[in-house]
Amino acid sequence: MLILGPPPKSLSERVEIMSSKKFARLITSIQQYDRVAVAYSGGVDSTLLLYAAKTALGPGKVVAFTILSSLSPSYAVEKWRSVFLEHFSGEVEHKEINTDPLAWQEFVENGSKRCYFCKKHMYSLLKDSMKGEDCYILFDGTNTDDMKEDRPGLKAIRELDIKTPLFDVDLSKDEIRKIAKEIGLSNYDLPSNSCLATRIPTTRIIDKKILKRINRAETFLLEIGFSGCRVRPIGSYAIIEVQAADVDKISQLLIRNKITSYFNSLSFYDVALSFTQR
How far apart, in whole angstroms, are the C-alpha atoms of residue 87 and residue 200? Predict the structure, then answer.
């Protein structure tokens, strides 16, 4: 006799169920701690992690820390502040810490371990700042997709015993975005970003001038309708990296002329185009 059960669930339904289970595991895993700090960048990963910590422990048991420096794109700073105000204002304590990475010689030299030195300095600073907050556990928003890439900064995270709850419950970037959307986090589809130094080819000395040029160029592109762009300087020319969906738009003659003119004013005299699926 053949006993018919419920019809098999679609792939999207299975993914949704799995994501919900992982989020429940995330909440449970955080509940083992009394009071925690979250390294908050305003991206979807750290925003979901902060939301989960607030849910698991209550807002009074969570503090968010953000490091500000010349490596932070100005448009990203504005965005994360608005996201924090929207979802956590009046509930979660938030600390902004200023630092100057250009004072770290091993970082400025921009070798292959640049990200390791930067992360080690910054997270050591966060851990020192936590001591006055009666919390000794620091959370970072690393997810499973991050572990598939070559990220020297992850070595510093492990050395400093910083917890990675999203990775520990096997949450991928797509799952994080899905959960964030269901919860109602406004930045669930925000393009991934990174510090301005990641645009600079290794061995090229990092200085304030080049960081400002990159920041101004990316801010301009955002203002004319291209989110998630990155500008990579190589000598006197720049490579503009846009999302694949924007290639047709940025290829329009009027737009190209506008970009070329502005980039020339920043001393980028040749401009090339690349695209990413990011």
Answer: 33
Q: How far apart are CA 65 and CA 127, in angstroms?
A: 10
Letter for the amino acid at 96? E
Fold of 207-276: Alpha-Beta Plaits (3.30.70)
CA distance 98 to 77: 13
CA distances to 122, 154, 231 from 137, in Å? 15, 17, 35
Structure tokens at 28: 């449970």
Classified as helix, coil or strand, 39 is: strand
Q: What pLDDT is attached to residue 16?
A: 57
Fold annotation for 15-183: Rossmann fold (3.40.50)
**List of E strands, the chain:** 36-39, 62-68, 93-98, 137-139, 230-234, 237-243, 270-276
Chain segment 15-45, per-residue pLDDT in tens = 455 578 999 999 999 999 999 999 999 999 9
Provide the residue count of the chain.
Answer: 278
Q: For residues 254 and 256, give the distance between their C-alpha atoms in angstroms, rounded to a whole number.
A: 6
- Cα separation, 40 vs 86, in Å, equals 14
Q: What is the pLDDT of residues 97-138, one digit of tens each?
A: 999 999 999 999 999 999 999 999 999 999 998 887 777 799
